[in-house]
User: Fold these one by one.
Assistant:
Number 1:
Amino acid sequence: MLIPIRQWFKRKVPRVPPNTREKLQQELLNEAELDTEFLVLTVSSCILATLGLLMNSTAVIIGAMLIAPLMLPLRGLALGMLDTDRLLVKNSLITLIIGTMTAIIISGLVGGFFALPEASFGPEILTRTEPTLTDLGVAVAAGGISGFAKIRRKLSDALAGTAISVALMPPLCVVGISLSQKALPLASGAFLLYLTNLLGITLSCIVVFILGGYYLNYGQTSQALSGFTILTGILVFPLFISFGNLLRQEKFEGKIITLLQNKTVTVGQQSELVALNVQWPTFPWSKDYPIILVTVQENTKNPITPTQVGLVEKLIKKELGKRFKLVFRVSQLREVVADYELPLSTPELFGPVPPPPVSPISPQKLLPFSSSDNNE
């Protein structure tokens, strides 16, 4: 059975000439070299990404992605595993490991210096602690574009966009920031995202290099492809669980909003819904209850009472069959309009009106009357 497959593979995917493969191999070896340029770019992009995450600034994070060099050794690792090039595999792994550790250490030091508490982490940090299957899909697609751009010279300009979509540096910085605040669950989630991107990029690069004809023999090609497929498949299980939890959470939040607006007087008539946020337990198997935070603006004439909150909580539990804690965050709504009946100089608006200024008296008016004046 294997012989027909090998013959079909050789017919459909002819190998490139040896000099072409050796040229690509040398280029990837130069890219995977641990030199001053790689370290400078790694440190710079790590500091930028860490500050951007702490400030919750998307623009700064994108700037860090553009200069991050961590994607370069991954392509060398892909071709090295495909062609059994031990030197290329060794250099790529050393560069990747040192770059990874450097990013975690520096981001940890920066995070410890600013000491932003875990409760104050913004969306840019939190969104990188819960990887799903969609993140693996992005990594596979971006890695395929990166590998294809390497074997097609005209597409080299696409690497900047690929670096943004892959985003290897920000997850590592989230790991360091989380470790600095001893937030181990967040750090483990961010590191899982980094591994997802790493394996997804490498696997798709291997596939692109195979389809491009950059392989030596069918046996080694099968081993390299099977090995990375198995490693990536191991990550699919937690990513699938995370993706399923994300879908259930979004569905749950949508049902709560519908119930609050359509089946309660508290929200919709007595108050206006501003935002809804659900704080889920760190682990799906945790016995802690999710906390539903409902932010509303209420009418000052009819404030929300604890009894009403209890009734709304019972209604949601009855409809959804899930235990939770309901918390209303209430801000009063006041309407202030201008009173056009009052003049602009009304003391109630601007204070007492000052007396008109007294013009100075000329010295001539202070002189005694002359006789000529009396005659007049």
Note: The beta strands are 271-279, 291-299, 325-333.
Number 2:
Amino acid sequence: MTALQPARPHAAGRLPRVPFPVVDEVERHCEQDAEPTTVHIEVHLPGRVEEDRFRSAFAQSLARYPRALMRERPRGPFARRYEWELTDGPDRDPVSFPPAAPGALDRARDAALAVAPSLTASPPLRVEVVREPGREGCVLLFTVNHTALDGPACLRLAASAAEIYSGRAAPPPPAPARPASVPPPRRSGPSALARPARVAAGTPRGASGNAMLVAELPVPRRESGAPYTVNDQLMVATALTVADWNRSRGTAERPLRITMPVDDRPRGPEMPIGNGTRLVEVGFDAAEVAAGRDVAALLRLTAERTRALKAQPRPQLGRAASLLTTPLVPVAARASFTRGLRVLAGPWTSTTLLSNIGRIPYPMDFGDAGRPTALWFSAPARTPRGLTFTTASTAGRLHLALRWSRALLGDEDGAALLGLFTRHLAATSSEEAP
């Protein structure tokens, strides 16, 4: 949801409504209890926040962004749209301070992946302040229902809460760097009609939902004047990781398609809150990621493709999604059709997703509790993709979250994929790339 879509005027005593934008509606159609669509964000602070002070700061932050205070409005069987109802305040306190206990962070992570905040209570997110005995500091663990909000929007809420908590205004964040119009790359990658590779199944344990591993890695180095970005290095590492994994499982070689969110929104207090990223797909021919590939050439080729994709205007989910959400028939009928189409289109869904927030653009200064020493976030990994890579850079380190569907991979598979990614990312560094 973006602020460009105004709320409907309302009579006295009637809350304003906002029709679900395209992204929200498609996510709502495809909700699955077995694989909740959540975004998890954890902000590690060196000190501990004061309970009443943090509750007050976060409540004030929500009040600054009315679009965060929303719930799904009840609808009749023949309603043609889902609608958000903007509330005057939270329906419940989204902040909790569970008692400090051993293993509290692992349990909070598991809950973030397994239980989505309700869409029928405002706001559709929760914040758990996690503390463990014998461990300094605390972790602010946000769980967001992705039907309503995305990771960058939640970070904006957290940044405003930090300003209010500390009483110090943050400097204006830098605008997203976007290339001007660029010519298409010499080679555009695989045909859009080619069926992309799927992530090969590992040894799942039969459990449902998602699992996750997090790691702190060095930011890969680049030569001065290198034509590629850290995001391109992450993209290459992701492609090579999946290609090597599939090769080790004996699957036939196919082109890879990696979904990449692009966020063009301003990052300051005027940032539209909701699902504001657009999705593009970066393609790789099987030969480009084959064994013995030239990593330096692949970096240059990837940079050409990502620059062209970022510069090209495109609806958030493409034109087909816009047609699917046209309110010509009741929303219940569109939901059934969309779910069926998603199953049919499964073989053509992208191979995996890489979401790189990059360097966190806010200081997130929580006063006496300090600034973040680490920040991880993770995107949903429901099938048919079943695997996502998400990264952020904080305090000069790269924070990677690898998240996967338990129906596709087991814990040992996740550890093996993390090892492959770490090795391939190091190979893109200027000191090691050929």
Note: The chain has nine helices and 14 strands.
